Amino acid sequence: MIDNIIHAAFLMTTPILLAALGGLVNRVAGLVNIGLDSMMLAGALVGLMVASQTGSWPAALVAAALVGGLLGLLMSLTVTRLQANEIIVGLGFNIAVAGLVRFFLKSWYGTSGTLSLPDVAMLPRIHIPVVADIPVLGAIFSDHDPLTWAAWLLVPATAWFLARTRLGLRLRAAGAAPQAARALGLNPLNLRDASTVFAGAMSGLAGAYLCIGVVGIFNEGITAGRGFLALAAFYFGRNRPWPTALGALLFGLFDAIQIRLQGRGLPAELVQTLPYVMVIVILTLVAITLKRARNKGA
User: Fold this and answer.
1) What pLDDT is stored for residue 163 in this prediction?
2) Among candidates 7, 8, 9, 1, which has minimal Cα distance to 250?
3) How many CA atoms lie within 13 A of 267 on its CB side?
4) What is the rounded CA–CA span in Å between residue 234 and residue 17?
5) Taking residues 81-106, what's their average pLDDT?
6) What SS3 class is residue 208?
7) Cα separations (Å) of 253 from 7, 45, 234?
8) Burial letters for 69-98: b for 16+ Cβ neighbours within 10 Å, e otherwise?
9) So where does this one cross the membrane (predicted)?
10) How far is CA 169 from the centre of its chain?
11) What is the DSSP string of 105-124?
């Protein structure tokens, strides 16, 4: 049972982690992306459609990343060029994309709510015989798909990128001191646009994962607010990749637990709130800890 919960936790962590890393880079560059959920939803639908039409999961991931990146670019241009409020724009994108998806399903497929397509290419599982039969280790390292491995490899890659590369340092400068960045000849708005495209692409991959990595179908509520869990994860991590990954894993664990509790006959409406209740609890504890640390420092 413990092995199953651990394996499910890593499964549920992947979409949160992907979107959280994208949102983290976006936040470092100076833009808080509230619209991650809309990019996940669009990526989920496009990923399923392409996986069904082509029979290729890599093509589905590429298509999902592209549509997510496009939405990210549109959102960023609205904020950086039209000077719109990033919070309002993000919320607007969430509502608009949800409505467009609903309209598309009804007009194109003649259905509403759930879309099931034939011959969907699912993400393959990588079986590692050396650890597969070892308790706990097998659940952590074996029978995961390539996108899960990629998500976790992106954690140290993101940390290195932001701390060690010229572009990473420029992104940090654009977010922390845009005036100083301009004085150095950088264009903070272009850097923010690029970071939002990256966040959109990562969220698109996260959405595609939910469809072709977990359930094999699309549902209007498939993201279930995971874009907001990703937002909470990088706030929990204070814009640092490793603590962000830890936050994503915690939220993924609670997501896996609530799914298992539903199978035990507990009310689904109540149990489904568990990950979000834990977000409030964890962020509150983090805020209290930081406040006490500041008081001691003073």
Assistant:
1) 94
2) 9
3) 3
4) 9
5) 94
6) helix
7) 9, 25, 16
8) bbbbbbbbebbbeeeeebeebbebbbeebb
9) 6-24, 31-51, 57-75, 87-105, 146-163, 196-215, 273-290
10) 23
11) IIIIIS--SEE--SS--PPP
User: Which of 140, 125, 34, 11 lies closest to 87, judged by CA?
Assistant: 34
% of residues, the chain, pLDDT over 70: 95
Q: Say if residues 96 and 35 touch (Cβ distance below 8 Å).
A: no
Which two structure tokens, joined as six digits, stand for 39?
């990019």
Confidence (pTM): 0.93
The mean pLDDT value for 157-178 works out to: 93
Q: Which pLDDT tens digit goes with each residue over 140-157?
A: 777 889 999 999 999 999
β-bridge pairing 218-219 and 114-115: antiparallel
Helix (H, G, I), strand (E, B) or coil at 133: coil
**218: three-class secondary structure by DSSP:** strand
Residue-wise pLDDT tens digits, 185-216 = 889 999 999 999 999 999 999 999 999 998 99
Q: Report residue 144: phi and psi, to 5°.
A: -105, 160
Give yes or no for a contact between 206 and 226, defined as CB atoms under 8 angstroms apart. Answer: yes
